[in-house]
Amino acid sequence: MPLRDDAIALCWLSLLSLALWALAYQQPLWLTLNIGGDSVTHRREDDAPFLSGFHASEPADRQVAEWWTLPPGYSYRWATPEATIHLPGVGGGRWLITLDASSGRPDGSPSRSTWQPAEQPPLTLLLAAEFRTYTLLLPATAAGDLTIDMQTEAYQSPTDPRDLGFALRSWQLAPTQGDWLRWPAWGQLAWLLVALLLFYGLARGLVLWWRGAVLLSSAAALLLASLLAWTRLPLTLFTPALVVLLALCGLLALGVAALTSCLLSVPRFRSLVALRWPYGALLALVLVAFALRLGGMLHPHAIFSDHRLHANNLLELGLGSVFFTEGLPAEAGGGQAPYPPGSYIVLNPLTLLLGADLESRVLVMQAGTALLDSLVLVLLWAMLRQSAASQRVALLGAALYLLPPLLLASFSIGEYANIGGQALALPVLALLLWRRLWWRWHGLWLAALGIGLLSHLGVALSLLLVLAAFWLLELVRLLRRYTAAGRQALVRFSLALGSTVVLVLLFYYTVPLFVATFAARLHAGAAAEATPTAAAHYSPLGETLWYLLMALVAPESRLLPIVVLAALTGLAWLWQQRRRGTPAVTPATGLPWLLSAWWLGTGLALVATFLLARQGVRWQHFLYPALCLSAAPVLWCLSQRGRAGRIVVISGVLLTLLQGLLFWVLQLDDYLH
Questions:
Q1: At a CB cut-off of 8 Å and minimum separation 6, what does 622 contact?
Q2: Which among 120, 424, 432, 615 is least buried, having the fewest CB atoms inside 10 angstroms?
Q3: Separation of alpha carbons 252 and 256, rounded Å
Q4: In this structure, how many other beta carbons lie within 10 angstroms of the beta carbon of residue 193?
Q5: Are the C-beta atoms of 459 and 337 separated by less than 8 Å?
Q6: How far apart (Å, rounded) are the C-alpha atoms in residues 663 and 654?
């Protein structure tokens, strides 16, 4: 009676979770918001998620990064005549609010401000011209939120065209003393309960029996209780988005289930989708990766730098423009460079579903890029399965890509074209393992190659160098053991690669706009080479090789050392197994060659570009999938060496995922703050 067991489990889980969360609200909450920034820690924008109708932080000067050195020596914000402060989920009851505010009038006149707490009579304050401390006793709403609408007499400054109300410097929140019972925020408990039920449904439907789903959901409830007790507002800010995110994951899972049902009706695909467990686990990994990526970007605390650039490019693509150029940073050589529209073309149809306004386009780029990068897990799983790896080895390789710090850093910055372009280019390399498929359906590979070359300029360069290295290794293998079939395959591969590259160059990269851009860069490079300081723009070969070594093993490189060491060991192990002719890896003769070409091509990209610029291509991003592919087999082999081996592997994988998660949280918390 699985439905009865699920119903009973959900009832007990809901009751215990609500009790646990209510208990977490007994932990008192103290909050200090340094409006406009903290002059001690030098952080900014931590107050932005709670404010509405406030102007940008002050003091500010584009020429001075150390804003805390600017007069008047402290930070503040101007409120508009109609502003709101909203603290979600603080808890029920009454709260002590202490704030530093002033009218901001240079003539010394006060300003009258009317504050409307939710469900309470308004309060009228006469704010002095200088900053003074005001203490208020205000109740929370029935849902447990603290919301204050503020209406202030408008101030027209002769030197500032903005609508000004009053200046706010700090805001402190403290619980009242003597309350033996603190009421929880019932609205937040409702959001959390819906999120927990959705989480249970996903876990139950994909991979776990009801007991396992209950244990996993109980752990999630305990984690949420800990967050409510110790980091309440970062969680309560996110709970509505968390429910929407879990519902979206549920819709994706239902869509995959519907597609699976359709495939089951086709005899050719019946054996492919008949086995439930590994595909459910793979889908669970993809949904976890998608939720972690998109959830981090949707958190109100996160700040991005390039997200609106991609949203505007998406709009221009919809208007018919396909030739983009963007300015490169100095570390990448500087100047304008082509910006291929591959990811924009793939994601543009989503604007018909979500809308074409600015915020909707940003959401399209964020959600679409997160989904594309999450689907890389499916690609890695399929490549390992094609290479005769077991289901567990393939799932382990996919799991290593759950939280790659390099890609997560690009997500927080807003480098969606880089991430999406890499996800579109990786199928080109994956299809090289399906030699029979490539032989019979080479048009599919040519189409994938064309999309990969139009995905992103840096990704296209990395892809071409890996393919060139693969061609070189195939030539070496043919010279060592000549066969007519091998010669024919190499000729076909050469013709397919060369013709596609020529066509893409001819029809896209040689338009007058790009030709002028390339000519300007070459002219600037020649002029810089003639100057006495030209040597500063070129890195000696020894420095480049040292940088490569440090980028692979140094902790600050964001390439996890455990993954790098396991990947290098795994590549050597694969070659050793191939030479031995081990039956389990005999069909995987293509994987060692492909991984070797991946390393060789990435090394060529690194050396060739770092001789000219410190940041030529995102070679670490492009290498990370290869690290997961080569690390998974050797980690699984080690786990079969008794209890000690299993402990080492499980600890290493968990440590890798924990490090990636910690980096993602810190990156979202610190970037542009």
A1: 422, 459, 462, 463, 466, 602, 605
A2: 120
A3: 6
A4: 17
A5: no
A6: 14
- How do the domains of the chain map onto residue ranges? 2-25+187-237, 31-175, 305-530+541-670
Look-up of token digits 């994951």? 249
- Name the pTM for this structure: 0.92
Q: Going by DSSP bridges, is the β-strand pair 111-117/77-87 parallel, antiparallel, or unpaired?
A: unpaired
pLDDT digits (tens, 9 = 90+) for 13-24: 999 999 999 999
Cα(523)–Cα(508) distance, rounded to whole angstroms?
22
- Summarised one tens digit per residue, pLDDT across range 254-283 is 888 887 777 666 665 555 544 455 788 899
| Both structure tokens of 547 | 């940088």
Kindly provide the b/e burial profile for residues 203-228, where b requires at least 16 CB atoms within 10 angstroms of the residue's own CB: bbbbbbebeebbebbbebbeebbebb
CB 373 within 8 A of CB 286: no
- Topology of the domain comprising 31-175: Jelly Rolls (2.60.120)
Sign of the C-alpha dihedral computed for residues 392, 398, 400 and 403 taken in this order? negative
Q: What share of the chain is helix, strand, coil (3-state, %, to 5)?
A: 65, 10, 25
What is residue 118's predicted lDDT score, i.e. its pLDDT? 77
The DSSP code sequence of 322-390 is ---EEEEPGGGT-EEEE---HHHHHHGGGHHHH-SSHHHHHHHHHHHHHHHHHTHHHHHHHHHHHTT--
Helix, strand, or coil (residue 136): strand
